[in-house]
Structure formats: structure tokens, C-alpha cells
Amino acid sequence: MEFLRILRVMADATGIYNFSAGNLVMICFGILFIYFGIKKRYEPFLLVPLGIGAILVNIPGTGLMDVGGLLHFNYLGVEKVIYPPLIFLGVGAMTDFGPLIANPSTIILGAAAHIGIFIALVGAKLLGFTIKEAGAIGIIGGADGPMAIYVSTKLAPHLLGQVAVSAYSYMALLPLIQPPIMRLLVPRRERELAMEQLRPVSRREKIVFPIMMIILVNSLLPPIAPLISCLMLGNLIRESGVIERIADTLGGVFLDIVTVFIAVAIGSTMSAQNFVNLKTLEIVVLGLIAFCTGTAGGLLAARIMCKLSGGKINPLIGSAGIAAVPMAARVSHTVGIEDNPYNFLIMYAMGPNLAGVLGTAVAGGIMLTLLGVH
Amino acid sequence: MSENNRKTIASPVPGKVAEVKTKPGDQVKRGDLLLIVEAMKMYNRVLTPYDGVVREVAVSAGQKVNTSDPLVVIEV
Amino acid sequence: MQGIIPDTLSGALVLSAFDFVACFFVLWFFGLIINLLKRLG
């Protein structure tokens, strides 16, 4: 029966014949990501391409993720650590560090909110991960996508997918994760506090800041030089004010495009054989613990600062120290405005929020140094 | 009528005026929506903390504003 | 270069404690330096 054999050969070559239950599960997750992105508008820039990546890599037989395949080429941008610095270049070009420069005392909150990294790290070690894996899992709590990718590429490349997916998903879900913790840990009286207006920051300060940070951070923590250099270069391009066109493109179109690439690349690590196992579940849970405890750490430190300053600091800005710029700052603002509609916390929250980026970078840099990775 | 009765509502955030919801002559009560300022991709509702009459709207939709730029003047 | 932290639970605890404290210290230091910018006016 030639005809049946032809049919058989055809069937073998199609995806349908080779589907496993795991593939179907992962495709459902891909669709879920897209649903959250489009319908719920949780960071659609990230979740839609992430979902597409996850769907593509779970259709058997396309060879997209094999060496030489389209997704594999794209993935090299992550594996060879090309995309994360590019993302930081764009982020730098769209970020106004003014709120941080105006209120440097809130920088401490960027450290306090990183307790989550270490709680997750120890938790991962208890669950039997190696210390390098535990470090990569902990960095989820840094709530900084490019940094999580950077650190986990160096420490535990085989966990990159799980770490990046957890970090990006929880950042997108921040408006669900943080507010209950904020209402629980900060009494209403303190949530209503209005803050003193930030001092204006001059152009000269804003230009000196990135140059100073490049020299300072890179000489203190060489392992994170690629990220900080790009972040500050982008920022200098913005603040110089003489190449506005480049700054607008970097912080806008360029950043959007690289984000699509990086999100597809992360999605493409979500193959069933990679993801459908207990380790993934453990990492996802540890990541959530890192986010929650980090949020709590930032809030509690901010409450201490509130007390010490005699009520000049609204503790709600503490949770923004986790990083996740600018989502976490928006959450601080949104929760604050519920209790006091005249209270606009967004710019105050940007201070610890930006400090959180530095905090994640510093924590990651120290971790890489101590674990002997370059 | 003294100048003391005139209260200026300043922009609480740097951003762009998305919508002006009031006009000179409007009677407003504490908590009424005056305008919406977009900042960090969020729509911020600027409410009046005073009861009174709107005397002046200093901005129009689409205009960029900085923190503490005057938006609306209200006669209390 | 080999890391100086052993792959044990106490290693993880030491790494965490040191990193957290050092992170505080480094950020505080950044804060001090950033505060100097004020003088530029």
C-alpha cells in the first residue's frame, strides 16, 4: 500500500504526530501569556512575544531552535549576552535619574528591597540546587530582566529560561503581587503621608551623573561593567541634549525592538523537555517568594526611614526599591492614591525604583565576584 | 475680592496634560476632577482640594507640564 | 578563578549575608557621592 506509506511519511513530518502532552501544556502557557498581554494589558510588549516564542518552540519538527534555526540565532543574542546591554542602553536613554539625584537618601531602599534575592538564594540551596544555580534563582528577586538574564547566563545557563520567565512574569504581575503586601505592612495613616517636593536637578548634575557612575561602578564592580556602561551611556546621550534624535530612538523604537527579540528568545527556552519538571515549579515558587519578601523588605526599611525622618517619607515608596522600573513605582503611586487622592507618589517612588536597578546590579556583581565568575 | 481667595492648583507630576475637564466659570467642589495629566504612561487625575469657582485654566490638552507648573486657578 | 564560597548551605548563608550587607554599603556610598552633585548646582 504505497498510498498509506506516503500518508505515514507525511504524518511523521508534521508537528501533530510528534506532539507530547508537555508540548500542549507549554503551548497553553504561551496562549495564557498572550491573553494576559492583550486582554489584561500586563506588559504586552513582553508577554505577547514571550508567548509566541513559547508556542513556536513547542511545535515539534520545525527545527527553529536547532543550531542554524531562526530562534536559535535569536537566542544567541541572549546566550552571548548581546541583548541585555542593548536593553540597558535603551532604558538609560529613556530614564530620568533626576528623582534619585534629588533624594539620594532613598537609595538605601534599593538595597533593602533586595533581601528577597538572598532569601530565595538560601531557599534554593535548601532545596538542593548548587550554589551557582541558587544565585541565579535568587537574582529573580532583583526584578530586573536584563540583569537576571546576565547573571543567570554567567552562573547557570541551563536555568536561564526559568529564571528569565519568572522574573519577567512577576514584573508584569507586580500590580497583583505588591498591593496586598503594601496594605498589610503599612498602616493607613502612613500610606496617606504626603512628601516634600523634590528639589529641581540641574542639567549639569544630570550630565555628570552618568559619567561619574560609569567610573565609580565599573571600577568597584567590573563584572557588571557591560550593563552599567550601556545604561549610563544611554543616559548620557539623553541628558547631553545635543543628540535628541538618537536618544528618542534608543529609548523608544530601538528599545521596543530589542525587547521583542529578547522576549521571543526567552519564550523559546520554554520547550516542554526544558520546562515540564519539578525544578521549574520550585524556581517559580522561589521567585515569587523573592518578589514578596523583597517588597516587604523595602516597605519595612521605608517605614524605619519614615519614623527617623519624622514622617517625611511615605513608606509606600519602599516597595519600589525592588527595581522593575517603572512598574514598581507605578504600583506605589496607585496604592498611595487610593488612600489620599491628592498624593502623587510616582516621582518620589522613582528614586528607590532607580536605586533598585543599581541595587540589583551591585548585588549581582558581588555575587559573580564571590562565586568566581567573570 | 482679594487675591488671597485665589488658589492655584499646581501640577503634581512632570508630564503631559491629557484632558482638561473644567473651564473658567465652573462651580467645583472638593474632590472634583479638574484635569488629567499623563506621566510615566499613567493617567493621573488632578482633583481640586477646594470648593469654589474656576477662574483660569492655564494649560490645554497636549501641553507638557513640569512639577508645580500652575494648572488651574480657583476662587474660593 | 574559583569562587571562595563553598557549595554548601553555610556557603549560601555567608554569600547572602555578605552580599546583602555589602550591597547596602555600596549603595550608601553611591548615595554619598550622588549627594555631592548638589554642589554643582
Mean pLDDT of chain B: 88
Order of helices and strands of chain C: H
Percent of residues in beta strands of chain B: over 45%
Number of helices of chain C: 1
What separation lies between the terminal Cα atoms of chain C? 44 Å
- Determine the fraction of residues in helical runs of chain B and give it as a percent range: under 10%
State Rg of chain C.
16 Å
| Spatial order of strands in the largest sheet of chain B | 1-8-6-3
Biggest β-sheet of chain B, characterized?
A: 4 strands, antiparallel
Organism (chain B): Desulfotomaculum copahuensis
InterPro entries (chain B): Biotin_Carboxyl_Carrier/Decarb, Biotin_lipoyl, Single_hybrid_motif
Pfam family, one (chain B): Biotin_lipoyl
Protein name (chain B): Lipoyl-binding domain-containing protein
List descriptors:
heterotrimer, B: 76 residues, mainly beta, four-stranded antiparallel sheet, globular, C: 41 residues, mainly alpha, rod-shaped, Biotin_lipoyl (chain B), Biotin_Carboxyl_Carrier/Decarb (chain B), Single_hybrid_motif (chain B), Lipoyl-binding domain-containing protein (chain B), biotin (chain B)
Structure, explained:
The complex is a heterotrimer of chains A (374), B (76) and C (41). By secondary structure, chain A is mostly helical. Chain A has one domain. Chain A has helices at residues 2-13, 15-18, 21-38, 44-57, 70-79, 83-94, 98-102, 107-112, 115-126, 131-138, 145-155, 160-172, 174-185, 188-191, 203-220, 225-240, 244-267, 272-275, 278-308, 327-339, 346-370. Chain A is globular. Chain A starts with a helix and ends with a helix. With 76 residues, chain B is an all-beta fold. Chain B has a single domain, classed as OB fold (Dihydrolipoamide Acetyltransferase, E2P) (Beta Barrel). Chain B is 0% helix and 53% strand. Chain B contains no helices and eight strands. In chain B, strands 1-8-6-3 form a four-stranded antiparallel β-sheet, with no helix packed on it. Chain C has a domain at 9-36. Chain C has one helix at residues 9-36. Chains in contact: A-B, A-C. Chain A binds chain C through residues 100-101, 104-105, 107-108, 110-112, 114-115, 117-119, 121-122, 124-126, 130-132, 134-135, 138, 199, 202, 204-205, 208-209, 212-213, 216, 220-221, 355, 358-359, 362-363, 366-367, 370-374, and chain C through 1-9, 11-13, 15-20, 22-24, 26-28, 30-35, 37-38, 40-41.
